[in-house]
């Protein structure tokens, strides 16, 4: 179990395509596990069909036990229970693994992550691009937006203050995105504080928001290794790398943006940037990210005999 995905059946094909791309770009055999929620027998057969078509690695299915999350359905969340899978990986995996979101495309060798020196940290991820500018507390200061759109900006400020209180720190370069994570499961499980990662009661305050991401940021604050953004690259990376929005960020962060713009290693189609939802304008603006996806999709369909459906 070296690379792990967690999806409900609606995201089966994106997960399979991402897993396929990971195996195809691996420098040595790769073991990929897809944890599924509410999979049918047909879904499981599709996973096996993809596995049988592969050389250089394996893709297998494993059921996610919903009993790990007693009472989760009683809380309002826009995410399915399977999204909480990373909180339980230290119990399910004995060694280092890489967790990858389904809405991704791996265009480099994930063995780089599996073999990477994390400088003594038990966990690694990339800075979250959506909240990175909050670190300086600028959202607490008056701005032109508060003059022209006071209602919207007031709501956003309250949300950001609330998030900072829940986390125990102001998000910024110290807040990571949970889409791609390297987890040293044995080290996490063996640490008295970190083994609380699966404590449901401590997850509850975060459930209405970004549950597993916020909980993991709270737990690993100051105890994670920063991966280059190349490993979690948004389709709009060229615009990110040239935007004045990030001019106050650290030199290291800005260098990571520049590197990711030149050589992305994992595309992460975050938010509304999903390839199967992309508008014609988005495909034009972010043609490299969507072009890569279409190329791998065509190869996937040819080699597996399946039709990619969403």
Provide mean pLDDT, rounded.
Answer: 90
Residue share in helices? Answer: 25-40%
Ranges where pLDDT stays below 50 over 5 or more residues in a row are none
User: What is the C-alpha radius of gyration, as a whole number of Å?
Assistant: 19 Å
So what's the overall shape? Answer: globular
Order of helices and strands: EHEHEHEEHEHHEHHHEHHEHH
Q: Span between N and C termini?
A: 26 Å
Biggest sheet layout: 7 strands, mixed
Give the spatial strand order of the biggest sheet: 3-2-1-4-7-6-8
Structural class: alpha/beta
Compute the number of helices: 13
E-strand count: 9
Q: Oligomeric status of the shown chains? A: single chain
Q: How much of the polypeptide forms β-strand, as a percent range?
A: 15-25%
What does this molecule look like?
- The protein is of the alpha/beta class and 310 residues long.
- Helices cover 38% and strands 15% of the residues.
- It has 13 helices and nine strands.
- The strands form two sheets. Strands 3-2-1-4-7-6-8 form a seven-stranded mixed beta sheet.
- The longest helix has 18 residues, at 150-167.
- The radius of gyration is 19 Å and the shape is globular.
Topology:
Layout lengths: L2 E6 L3 H13 L5 E8 L3 H13 L3 E7 L25 H4 L3 E5 L3 E3 L4 H4 L8 E5 L16 H5 L1 H18 L8 E9 H5 L10 H4 L7 H10 L4 E2 L10 H5 L9 H12 L3 E3 L11 H6 L1 H18 L6
Parallel strand pairs: 1-2, 1-4, 2-3, 6-8
Antiparallel strand pairs: 4-7, 5-9, 6-7
């Amino acid at each position: 179990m070296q690379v792990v995905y967690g999806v409900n059946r609606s995201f089966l094909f994106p997960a399979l395509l991402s897993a396929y791309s990971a195996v195809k770009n691996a420098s040595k055999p790769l073991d990929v596990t897809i944890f599924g929620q509410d999979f049918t027998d047909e879904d499981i057969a599709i996973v096996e069909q993809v596995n049988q078509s592969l050389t250089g690695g394996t893709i297998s299915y494993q059921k996610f036990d919903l009993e790990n999350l007693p009472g989760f359905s009683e809380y309002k969340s826009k995410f399915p229970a399977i999204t909480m899978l990373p909180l339980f990986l230290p119990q399910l995996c004995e060694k280092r693994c890489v967790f990858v979101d389904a809405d991704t495309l791996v265009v480099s060798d994930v063995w780089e992550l599996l073999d990477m020196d994390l400088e003594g940290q038990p966990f690694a991820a990339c800075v979250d691009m959506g909240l990175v500018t909050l670190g300086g507390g600028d959202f607490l200061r008056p701005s032109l937006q508060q003059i022209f759109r006071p209602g919207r900006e007031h709501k956003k400020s309250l949300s950001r203050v609330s998030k900072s209180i829940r986390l125990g720190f102001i998000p910024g370069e110290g807040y990571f995105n949970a889409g791609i994570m390297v987890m040293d499961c044995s080290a996490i499980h063996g640490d008295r504080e970190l083994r609380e990662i699966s404590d449901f009661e401590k997850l509850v305050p975060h459930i209405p928001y970004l549950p597993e991401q916020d909980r993991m940021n709270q737990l690993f604050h100051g105890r994670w290794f920063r991966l280059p953004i190349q490993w979690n690259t948004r389709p709009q990376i060229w615009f990110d790398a040239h935007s004045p929005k990030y001019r106050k960020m650290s030199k290291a962060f800005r260098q990571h943006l520049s590197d990711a713009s030149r050589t992305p290693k994992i595309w992460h189609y975050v938010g509304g940037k999903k390839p199967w939802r992309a508008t014609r304008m988005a495909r034009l603006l972010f043609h490299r990210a969507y072009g890569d996806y279409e190329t791998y999709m065509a190869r996937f369909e040819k080699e597996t005999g399946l039709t990619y459906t969403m």
